[in-house]
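--- STAGE predict ---
source: upstream dedup step, 1 unique chain passed
mode: sequence only
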Amino acid sequence: MLASIALLIALIAYRVVVPSQDKLHARKVSAALLQCQQRIAGLAEYGDAETPPYTKNYGTKGEFYFAWQRGSFHFKNVYGAPEKMSASCIGDLETGEIKQLTINAKTIL
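--- STAGE serialize ---
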């Protein structure tokens, strides 16, 4: 009885310490999304940029691909008025490197 309790505790501890492949993948996707959101918001020329909202990953296997349709976030224009924005961010999920970045259909990377 004591041995089975110890085994159960060891299995639970192992599951907590060693995350599953699904959890590791989800962490990489979350980190890539945050990186894309921050990079996009940092490109606003006139400040007061909205950070693009959460969007799902459309990438496959080792790629991330996030897309925001026009109007899902705004940047201030030269006159201080909000301007509707769109964006996409594609990269390598393993390295976290952004390979392609577009804002309002203009390629940045």
